[in-house]
Write a structure and sequence with these properties.
Blueprint: H1 10-15, H2 17-31, H3 39-54, E1 58-60, E2 64-66, H4 71-78, H5 80-98, H6 106-129, H7 137-168, E3 170-171, E4 174-175, H8 182-215, H9 217-221, H10 223-229, H11 245-267, H12 285-309, H13 315-326, H14 343-350, H15 355-360, H16 386-422
Antiparallel strand pairs: 1-2, 3-4
Length: about 425
């Protein structure tokens, strides 16, 4: 769902900053109220998690890819302003370092995924949750529905933005930027969201909030967060029973697999050989098997190391992030799943390359473009066999997690320090 350079006019892209920049300014002011020694690491963890989730990208017609984000979960736990900060940081670093989304479209991508998504999801959650206890199951359902609405709203915004380009910027009857009209871009983005990524977003959010309710209820009921998350008058509810993580996974993973299989059937025309619209007969299953075997060996080695290397308080979160990074190659099983449409795809569909693509597409080369690992040709994402590509994706994913987590941590500490400096010291009384 990152819009690459070339699909939007620079005027349109940079014009999005009229909305995005003031929201960023408001965000910095608001998050100061909730940033402390507990919430800053949590914010960095969420930003890294969202980066990893967004790597599982599925291409859709209309010029971009679709993926879950995790933005509503951040908004529910820390507030929508915190979600804006975490997601904007992740999106900007993705564009600058990994070439995921355009440089000129940073304002637009942040508007869609870091502002529209978390705010739409959060207010839907608040509407459904009402004044129910913070640790109630109703809050889980409300968060899941909010996540579904939030991602769908972001997908609709992307479809509108791409579809407006032929209407606003054309020359001699030919679009200068995205040639996809509203009649193509909106249905493409909405259908992929409604029947796929929004459902995944809802499952991720439901699992995440359920985990916090049962394992870290003190985060949801902390006085410093309640005024933003639930309202000062929201009841805490009874202490949630602590349920081991493996039990939550045992409930969520089978449900997710069933839902995804049904979605695959629907999008594949009820043909098992064309799940999710891909021609699975073209997949080299021998290469896939080798890749999965290597991924499994890496998981067996790295996940226990992560568990024992991290402090007790960070073990579960660290293992989850490491597991997500190791599983990134699963997105490579179907050809082209980690993909953003480019000039060659436009030419194949329309017979020409719009002027905007010739001038803007690829004008900036990110250090880890297409998740290649610099100076290591063995891990280049354009090399073969498939397990080489998988290792490159895993390495760049781990680098991205560390980079985004570290930058978000630094931004959080910087904002909190400015807050503490803004509070005047209390003068001590002189003794008589």
């Amino acid at each position: 769902m990152h819009i690459p350079d070339g699909y939007l006019s620079p005027i349109f892209s940079l014009g999005s900053g009229v909305v995005t920049v003031p929201v960023w300014a408001r965000t910095v002011t608001k998050v100061r109220a909730v940033l402390n020694q507990r919430t800053i690491p949590l914010l960095a963890l969420f930003a890294a998690m969202c980066f990893t989730i967004m790597l599982f990208t599925v291409p859709v017609p209309g010029g971009t890819g679709a993926h879950a984000v995790g933005g509503t979960l951040i908004a529910v736990v820390l507030g929508p302003e915190a979600a804006v900060l975490a997601l904007s940081t992740a999106l900007i670093i993705q564009a600058l370092f990994f070439g995921d989304g355009g440089i000129l479209t940073i304002f637009t991508n942040c508007l869609n995924l870091a502002i529209i998504l978390p705010y739409a999801g959060y207010f839907t959650y608040r509407l459904i949750a009402a004044k129910s206890p913070i640790l109630s199951i109703r809050r889980v359902w409300a968060a899941a529905i909010g996540a579904y609405v939030g991602l769908t709203a972001a997908a609709l915004a992307i479809g509108i933005e791409i579809g407006l380009q032929p209407l606003l910027f054309s020359q001699n009857g030919k679009p200068l930027y995205s040639p996809y009209p509203l009649s193509i871009s909106i249905p493409a983005m909405l259908l992929s969201a409604i029947f796929a990524t929004s459902i995944v977003e809802a499952l991720i959010t439901a699992f995440g909030l359920s985990y916090f309710q049962r394992s870290l209820p003190e985060v949801l009921t902390a006085p410093t967060l309640r005024s933003i998350v639930s309202g000062a008058d929201a009841p805490e509810g009874r202490e949630a029973q602590r349920i081991p993580l493996w039990r939550l996974l045992a409930l969520i993973i089978p449900l997710a697999l069933v839902v995804l299989f049904l979605i695959g059937l629907i999008t594949g025309g009820w043909n098992v050989g064309h799940l999710f619209g891909a021609d699975w007969s073209q997949v080299n299953w021998a290469d896939i098997g080798t890749m999965l075997l290597i991924v499994a060996v890496i998981a067996i080695i790295l996940i226990p190391l992560t568990w024992f290397a991290l402090p007790r308080a960070r073990r579960k979160a660290g293992v989850i992030l490491m597991a997500l990074a190791i599983l990134l190659p699963l997105g490579l099983i179907s050809p082209g799943f980690v993909y953003e449409g480019g000039p060659s795809d436009i030419k194949a569909a329309f017979g020409y390359v719009p002027q905007g693509f010739q001038q803007l597409s690829g004008f900036f080369s990110a250090p880890f473009s297409n998740y290649n690992v610099p100076l290591l040709p063995f891990f280049q994402a354009t090399s073969a066999p498939l397990w080489h590509i998988a290792l490159g994706l895993e390495i760049s994913g781990i680098i991205g997690i560390l980079l985004i987590g570290g930058v978000t941590l630094g931004i959080g500490w910087l904002i909190s320090r400015r807050r503490s400096r803004a509070v005047p010291p209390v003068a001590s009384e002189k003794s008589g």
